[in-house]
Specification:
Layout: H1 8-11, H2 52-80, E1 86-89, E2 98-99, H3 100-117, H4 131-154, E3 156-157, H5 160-190, E4 196-201, H6 204-216, E5 222-228, H7 252-259, E6 263-266, H8 276-283, E7 290-293, E8 305-310, E9 313-318, H9 325-345, H10 347-360, E10 366-372, E11 378-384, H11 395-404, H12 421-428, H13 436-442, E12 446-448, H14 455-458, E13 474-476, H15 489-501, H16 505-520
Parallel strand pairs: 4-5, 4-6, 6-7, 12-13
Antiparallel strand pairs: 1-2, 1-3, 8-9, 10-11
Helix pairs in contact: 2-3, 2-5, 3-4, 4-5, 9-13
Subcellular location: Membrane
Membrane topology: Multi-pass membrane protein
Main location: membrane
């Protein structure tokens, strides 16, 4: 097995529903337990005598109830006022009329029940990824679909305006509420709280890689407290990390007791006997301690991974990526509608930037450059010119300096001397990319997709990197919202391939939201 990179955290957002993965083996960026029937009693606590998982779920339950009460009764007052409006019942129905106050109260109870049934407060989905939000939306739409069916069968006429307001309002406010709680949880996780205590088991190389990945991303909620490796060098640390070695792979139980770990993460099985993982799972305390496994494949998530039990073995099946006509049509429709709206709304900004570029430096307003897009075909990408007019003539000398600094493929320099003062501001806030909306309208680009490379970069690609051409290049993408120019070439490729392998419409919305946040608060990674 090979360890999972930290970049996989972004792709883990698109994992499949919990009911399909309770007994599956997945990558540690989402570290879902293999065997954990009742995690509410987990022993790791952020404070004396209190389970952080149970406490956090209780907070979510209380805030969900408050939000839904506000939505249901607020919608009722907005639509009917303070009177005692009655739900209409058809003459041939067996039910009698009842007050909308009772209907709203029943709606709140049913909505809370639906959120619980779909495990939207489960510890497996909180903190990272989009699964929590997807479950909230799914539970809400399923509930209102059930209400519509029951109203039809029981001949009950519920005010359509009431339902049409309550459903979208409830979904939006619930998602915002969950997002706010998630920011609170992430802030505490950066302080080392509200996290699982993880004991890593495997080869020193795989343990070191996983430990570094989890250390870089404390928001995932996993704090490495020790490791068991074949050598069992007690009192030593894993090379390149500060993770203490707690013994050999035969000392997992004692190591867990010594470190107060509640999770065992097997990072590789090359040095473990065939039955060792099973023995570890049997030794864990049911409901209190959990086992996770890291498969040798990385950056694969979502519906492509299916666990199928065969002869008692949980075999992982990884399906090849499929892009149906419906998916392509849906993505193109979103691209076209959003880019047209963007051009109209941002037209004053586009005009102002064009005039600023024209008046502050010599050269054309737009910079046109040949890039490689879908199926490896060339296209002309548009940007506001942010460099001096002879920037291309200076490229080779600067690119040589960049290669000497370690980036052998993609040119990106933090303090590029060719950038104009106005261009530096535009680049920091990604304003120079706005003309690419016209590329999207023309069909050569998408709003979200892999980075469009230069022909000179493609000439240096390894064979597997060409898989990024399975999707249209995007104005923004997974790598842009995961560090932008601060990422290495390997991380950039991994994130682009991860997007292509695991595309979904939800992932596009998430990336667009993160792009907006990164553009408004670019930090030091934008240049």
């Amino acid at each position: 097995m090979t360890p999972l990179s930290a970049a996989a955290e972004e792709t883990a957002d698109f994992s499949r529903p919990q009911h399909e993965q309770d007994n599956s083996i997945i990558a540690p960026a989402r570290l879902v337990p293999v065997a954990s029937p009742d995690d509410d009693r987990a022993p790791h606590r952020h404070g004396p005598g209190q389970s952080w998982r149970r406490a956090y779920a209780a907070r979510l339950w209380g805030s969900d109830l408050f939000v839904l009460a506000w939505v249901a009764f607020g919608t009722q007052l907005l639509w009917f006022g303070f009177g005692n409006a009655q739900v209409a019942i058809r003459e041939d129905a067996r039910l009698s009329e009842f007050s909308y106050w009772a209907f709203s109260a029943g709606l709140i109870v049913a909505w809370m029940w639906a959120l619980s049934l779909i495990d939207s407060r489960d510890y497996r989905v909180i903190g990272t990824g989009t699964t929590e939000y997807i479950r909230v939306v799914r539970a809400s739409f399923s509930l209102f679909g059930a209400i519509a069916i029951l109203a039809f069968l029981l001949r009950v006429d519920v005010a359509r305006g009431y339902l049409l307001i309550a459903l979208p309002l409830g979904v939006v406010v619930l998602v915002i509420e969950r997002w706010l709680w998630r920011q609170w949880l992430i802030a505490h996780r950066w302080l080392g709280e509200y996290s699982a205590r993880v004991l890593l088991v495997g080869s020193e190389e795989s343990v070191a890689s996983i430990a570094r990945d989890l250390h870089r991303l404390p928001s995932a909620g996993y704090r490495v407290v020790g490791a068991c490796v074949p050598s069992g060098r007690i009192a030593a640390t894993i090379p390149g990390t500060d993770v203490p070695v707690m013994g050999s792979i035969d000392n997992v139980e004692r190591a867990m007791a010594a470190t107060h770990a509640d999770t065992v993460a097997v990072t590789s099985t090359d040095d473990l006997p065939p039955s060792k993982v099973k023995q570890i799972s049997w030794s864990l305390e049911t409901g209190h301690q959990h086992l996770v496994l890291a498969p040798s494949i990385i950056d694969i998530a979502g519906p492509r991974i299916q666990t199928r039990p065969v002869a008692g073995l949980p075999l992982i099946h990884v399906e090849t990526p499929k892009f149906s006509r419906g998916q392509r049509f849906l993505k193109r429709t979103l691209d076209l509608a959003a880019s047209l709206a963007g051009v109209v709304i941002l037209s004053p900004v586009l005009i102002f930037l064009a005039m600023t570029v024209r008046l502050t430096s010599q050269g054309p307003v737009l910079f046109r450059q040949t890039r490689i897009g879908l199926r490896g075909e060339e296209f002309t990408m548009l940007k506001f010119r942010s460099m001096v007019e002879n920037a291309e003539d200076l490229l080779e000398q600067l690119a040589r300096q960049e290669r000497d600094s370690g980036n052998e493929v993609m040119f990106k320099m933090k303090n590029d001397p060719r950038v104009t003062p106005v261009g530096r501001v535009m680049r920091k806030f990604s304003l120079d990319e706005l003309p690419q909306l016209f590329n999207v309208i023309g069909g050569s680009m998408s709003l979200v997709g892999p980075r469009p490379p230069l022909p000179s970069e493609v000439a240096q690609y390894a064979d597997h990197v060409h898989r990024r051409f399975l999707a249209k290049p995007g104005i923004t993408g997974l790598w842009q919202v995961s560090g932008r120019s601060s990422l290495s070439w390997e991380d950039t490729v991994r994130l682009d391939l991860s997007y292509v392998e695991n595309w979904s419409l939800v992932s596009d919305f998430v990336i667009l939201a993160k792009t907006a946040r990164a553009a408004l608060s670019p930090g030091d990674s934008a240049h």
